[in-house]
Amino acid sequence: MATLSLQGLRKEYGDLVALDELNLDVRDGEFFVLLGPSGAGKTTTLKCIAGLETPTAGRVEIDGRDVTDVEPYDRNVAMAFENYALYPQKTAFQNMSFPLNSKRYRVSEEEARKRVERVAETLGIRHLLQRLPRELSGGQRQRVALGRVLVRPADVFLLDEPLSHLDAKLQMQMRAELRSLGEMQNTTSFYVSHDYREALALGDRIGVLREGRLVQMGTGEEVWQRPADTFVARTFGQPEINLVAGELVDGPEGCLFRSRDGEIEVLLPNRPAPPGTSVELGIRPLDLEVADGETPPDTVKLAGRVYVVERLGRELEVTVKIGENLIAVVTGKGSKDPDEQVTIFFSSSRLLLFEAETGRRIDLEQEDVEAINRA
Amino acid sequence: MDDNAPHGRKSRVRASDVVTNVLTVAYFVFALFPVFWILLLSLKPDKQLSTTYFVFDPTLENYTAVLGLSQGAEGIPFVRFFFNSLVISFGAVAIALLVGVPAAYAAARWKFRGSESLLFTLLSFRFAPELTVIIPLYVIYQKLGLFDSYVGMIWVYQLIALPFVVWILRSYFQDLSPELEQSALLDGYTRVRAFFLIVAPLVRPGIAAVSLISFIFAWNNFVFPLILTASHAQTVTVGALSFLGGEKPRYNFTAAAALIAAIPPLILAFSIQRYLVRGLSFGAVKG
């Protein structure tokens, strides 16, 4: 049980800057997920917290104590590695009880056995305790690695993509189990992942890392509904969010978004920036729907031609061509044929607008007062 | 036709088997004949030494004479040479492991300034001919009082054993994920404990293999003891040749001495052969 705080953390490998001014605070008992593509610096962050890498600059604090120069074995953190790092010459039982035999975390043999068995029971690997790692499947190894973390009460659990090597079905199952483990519920956990679904399912809060910088931090709902920029918006959601390049123009009814080829026009609730600003319009494929006759009121309608249809299990991903723009729509409605004329619509509250130059999101709820004055 | 086909194939298989076997036997004859010849030589009495090939009256007298149990080889303390070889070779391997295992581990895990040059220098000991350094070494050893001493010989054999230990074990350590030790660090163990509890047991086959190879190379070395020892610390390789000096060269004594000298490496090889093939191929070939 502890808080975790990274202050101005920076890590360089030669000329390469792996982490750049990373600031974040994880609350006591929180389950924090650090999300980012490979190479973003997720594992480096974990290893800096664990003490396996020495940061070039910045501080790591655990429970208010500066541990930047403390050896890993004195930090009281437990870590599950991406490649499991099970000791090949030890059985699952010996692997899991290994931390309990160390000088720092020693408990009696009897107590160690009890704890290992209890954790093994929760993880459903009790019958595998006498096996060597090479005799276990990937999923079982991952459970043993997780078990080795859970047997010892640590201040912080560090989990490096522990589910990434599992097949999809097992991943779903483990994702559900992971949060319900008692040990996880009480201990501050720092979880690293490249899978946005994992992040949304597990994280109390999510931090999005890009090229060593923290782009956004917030609850799953916040990062999903109000992404800080186009990078975050694209990270969450499959198929990816539709982004249409265009600019703001003044129309008779108010401020409009007009795509570069002029084929898409969307009336905005207010004028968030001066006319002529280059922007990108963002709308998630899940928020779009193909019209079936009448469309509900208060929606934005766009007409186009079906370009590609792909089946995603029960749903269809329909790509609609409007002018030069390709818009992906996920729909549960019946089959569509290529070249069919369709109308797609979405609720204007789902609309996202980004500055084209910086990629930053423009808040649509706020009028740009200056822009109005100028107009 | 259908009936004949399997017969045809069968006889063809048999023909290729015969060829394989003949070639194998031919190779064995080629490889083992010198050993066989030495064995014959070591069993021949003096009088038949240069007059017979395969038919003679075998005797064990050469062996007993070489070992000092009977007359004939006075003044040449072969048993002492043998003992010297044992002390020097085992000593050299022990020191090489003591220094080389930590060095190999460090070289595998940490890049530090000059680490590559250091490793290359070490390797260059192996491909530089011993003869190029032997004269300066002789002078240095004379001045330092290391000439003809155990310490001096064990030291100079580091040129042979240490590069093996460091280079071969380094690739063993590199094959192990550093995350194994990192995991042990987080499990509450110091670096030293993590090394001994987790890493060392995993490279045991490698340690066995390099110990054996460097022992054999140390045992077989000829040039260093030839120049750097006299009577006190002389080894079997040089000592066995003493029988060829004097008025009458005793080839049969030398043969017996050579065969006796081959025993320790053989015993060692057999006792750890379980590790050997696996050990050598494991570290060297990266997956």
How would you describe this structure to a colleague?
Chain A is an alpha+beta fold and 375 residues long. Chain A folds into two domains: 4-235, P-loop containing nucleotide triphosphate hydrolases (Rossmann fold, 3-Layer(aba) Sandwich); 242-374, Nucleic acid-binding proteins (OB fold (Dihydrolipoamide Acetyltransferase, E2P), Beta Barrel), CATH 2.40.50. Chain A has ten helices and 21 strands. A six-stranded mixed sheet of chain A has the order 6-7-8-3-9-10, with helices on both faces. In chain A, helix 3 (109-123) packs across helix 4. The longest helix of chain A is centred in the N-terminal third of the chain and has 15 residues, at 109-123. Chain A is elongated. The mean pLDDT of chain A is 89. In chain B, helix 3 packs across helix 6, helix 7 (158-175) runs antiparallel to helix 10 and helix 7 crosses helix 15. With 287 residues, chain B is mainly alpha-helical. Chain B has helices spanning 4-43, 61-66, 78-109, 115-127, 130-144, 150-156, 158-175, 178-186, 191-202, 204-220, 223-228, 236-239, 251-261, 263-271, 273-284. Chain B has two domains: 4-66, no CATH class; 78-284, MetI-like (MetI-like fold). Chain B is built from 15 helices and no strands. Classes of the chains: A alpha+beta (375), B mainly alpha (287). Chain A binds chain B through residues 47, 50-52, 71-73, 75, 77-79, 81, 83, 85, 87-89, 98-99, 102-105, 148, 152, and chain B through 177, 179-180, 182-190, 193, 198, 201-202.
CATH homology group of the largest domain in chain A: P-loop containing nucleotide triphosphate hydrolases
Strand order of the largest sheet of chain A: 6-7-8-3-9-10
How many domains of chain A? The number is: 2
Radius of gyration of chain B: 25 Å
What is the CATH H-level superfamily of the largest domain in chain B?
A: MetI-like
